[in-house]
Design brief:
Order of helices and strands of chain B: EHHEHEHEHEHEHEEHHEEHEHHEH
Number of strands of chain B: 12
Distance between the termini of chain A: 51 Å
Largest sheet of chain A: 3 strands, antiparallel
Shape of chain B: globular
Strand order of the largest sheet of chain B: 2-8-7-6-5-3-4
Number of domains of chain B: 2
Number of helices of chain B: 13
CATH superfamily of the largest domain in chain B: Type I PLP-dependent aspartate aminotransferase-like (Major domain)
Radius of gyration of chain A: 15 Å
Oligomer: heterodimer
Distance between the termini of chain B: 30 Å
Largest sheet of chain B: 7 strands, mixed
CATH topology of the largest domain in chain B: Aspartate Aminotransferase, domain 2
CATH architecture of the largest domain in chain B: 3-Layer(aba) Sandwich
Helix content of chain B: 25-40%
Strand order of the largest sheet of chain A: 1-2-3
Structural class of chain B: alpha/beta
Number of helices of chain A: 5
Shape of chain A: elongated
């Protein structure tokens, strides 16, 4: 884990950042019912991975976010990074986070793992939609 | 981390086979470390006796002589004639020579080939390619323990059938297929039978002639030999069309200048495997059983795959429910423990193991599978270290699992 591989070519292995987020995932677990303003879930039919994600919004910003994941290292690390990126953002800013933003923040991810990062982005968008639905329904 | 196995050796010392001792290597079904004794046997042919064995002068004759002596040693160990061994570059190539060779030699006789759903990609993809060329392929199912259904095999045979290809020991689960039974059936019907014995050669007391198959594949690097050398046993009289044509080497069945050093290394590796087979396999089998016992005792919700099948003694395939096998493998890797989710050949493929799916496991179950394949360097302490590491990794992953 001492040296990063040459980044000129395609990313073939997990970067230090991916391994860090896999080994020490940020914001894991469930939010308590009274803390949850929105809940989202996403599944990847291709590989069977599954992600659940909770948000608490305060003053229009994501104050708390947490996730649980059944998945490969790529799914865990990208979900963790997504929650780190989304924390403190307004829901509109959070909604615009893309899978490429997550991958870039991790210093890249192997080509065959790129689809993993979509899981977090989709779960977050569905959590934000859920929050809006809850507000509409009062 | 990415290059840990290739980085300079640690100061903690070396195993007998030259492997970094800080690393616990439980992926011997993917490949094995080259044994120093094997390396020593190869060096003269890389350094001094590097002549082309087909050359007409004495220098060339020396290389040919060494190669033929190595062939004799191998033939004696595996129980066949020297003229029945064809050297090639890999288990994959050996499978290709056998399957394509029979298909092309007998295509006028019939176009039906029977294989199984749990074969190595070298067999599966070769059959798929032949299917595109117009051959009809039957893929036999396996039971919950990963064993090929022999009754189904018998029922699938027809007048058009020219070849049956069923592996000996499965690379992912270690399940030993009923090869002798299959050979008895194919022999009675006069149909050729190929078996990929890459995972069993050196791990089981094999006698090729007695096994009954007409074509048997084995490879050097799975038994502490070098990569780049493998062989195909071709029973005398078996019709085979060459896949690679050229200078007529290997009795016209595999053209190309022979890898003399590799062949010498293969002979040494085969000798070593057969010499130490019984005590070594007993030792490894006990360690494997201990590993499984400790894992099931200390970790809940696991499933040992193919546990009721006869298995090669070094292989254990275990599902950890609710988590992903690849995550377990990376968690182990960070702790310098090498294991895999299945065949190294399909790593990176998001699909769960085709072998476990064929055994009737759900995708979710199959996704949690990890393969541990022990070897001659595996020590008792390694088992304890691995079980301890696993308990931590599995409970951490389960605590964040959404299932």
């Amino acid at each position: 884990m001492d040296s990063e591989p040459d980044r000129k070519g395609p990313v073939l292995f997990y970067t230090k950042a991916v391994i860090d987020h896999f080994m020490n995932p940020r914001n894991t677990g469930e939010l308590a019912e009274q803390d949850t303003d929105g809940f989202g879930m996403a599944g990847d039919p291709e590989c069977g991975d599954q992600l659940k994600l909770w948000i608490k919004v305060h003053g229009g910003r994501i104050e708390k976010i947490s996730f649980k994941s059944f998945g490969c290292p790529g799914a865990i690390a990208t979900s963790s990074m997504l929650t780190a990126l989304a924390t403190g953002k307004t829901t509109e800013e959070a909604r615009s986070i893309t899978d490429d933003d997550v991958i870039e923040a991790l210093g890249g991810i192997p080509e065959n793992k790129k689809h993993c990062s979509l899981l977090g982005v989709r779960a977050l968008q569905s959590a934000i939609n859920d929050r809006e639905a809850r507000i509409r329904e009062g | 981390m990415e290059c840990a196995p290739c980085s300079p050796p640690s100061t903690t010392g070396k195993h007998e086979s030259g492997k970094d001792s800080a690393l616990i290597y439980l992926d011997n079904n993917a490949t094995t470390p080259l044994h120093p004794r094997v390396l020593d046997s190869m060096m003269p042919f890389l350094r001094d006796c590097w002549a082309n064995p087909s050359s007409p002068y004495r220098f060339g004759h020396q290389a040919r002589d060494a190669m033929e002596k190595a062939r004799e040693r191998i033939a004696k160990r595996v129980g066949c004639k020297t003229t029945e061994l064809v050297f090639c570059s890999s288990g994959t190539e050996s499978d290709n020579i056998a399957i394509r060779g029979v298909a092309h030699a007998l295509s006028s006789k019939g176009g039906h080939i029977i294989t199984s759903t749990i074969e190595h990609p070298a067999v599966l993809d070769t059959c798929k390619a032949l299917e595109r060329d117009g051959f009809r392929i039957t893929r036999l199912p396996v039971n919950r323990d990963g064993l090929v259904d022999v009754a189904m095999l018998e029922a699938s045979l027809c007048n058009e059938t020219i070849l049956v290809s069923v592996m000996h020991a499965n690379n992912e689960t270690g399940a030993i297929q009923p090869i002798e039974k299959i050979a008895a059936i194919t022999k009675k019907r006069g149909i050729l039978f190929h078996t990929d014995a890459v995972q069993s050669t050196g791990k089981l007391p094999l006698h090729f002639d007695g096994l009954g198959a007409d074509l048997i594949t084995f490879s050097g690097h799975k038994l502490h030999g070098p990569k780049g050398i493998a062989a195909l046993f071709v029973r005398t009289g078996t019709p085979l069309a060459p896949v690679i044509s050229g200078g007529g080497q290997e009795r016209g069945l595999r053209a190309g200048t022979e890898h003399v050093a590799g062949i010498a290394g293969l002979a040494e590796a085969v000798d070593m495997a057969f010499e130490e087979q019984e005590p070594e396999n007993r030792r490894i089998g006990l360690l494997r059983d201990r590993l499984e016992k400790q894992i099931t005792a200390s970790i809940k919700d696991t499933r040992i795959n193919a546990v009721h099948a006869p298995r090669i003694p070094n292989t254990s395939n275990i599902c950890f429910h609710g988590i992903d096998g690849e995550s377990v493998v990376l968690g182990l890797d960070v702790l310098d423990i090498c294991a895999s989710t299945g065949s190294a050949c399909s790593t990176g493929d998001p699909e769960p193991s085709h072998v476990l799916l064929a055994m009737g496991l759900s995708r979710r179950e199959a996704q949690g599978a990890v393969r541990f394949s022990l070897g001659r360097d595996t020590k008792e302490d390694d088992v304890n270290t691995v079980v301890q590491a696993l308990s931590g990794i599995v409970s951490r992953l389960r605590s964040i699992s959404s299932l």
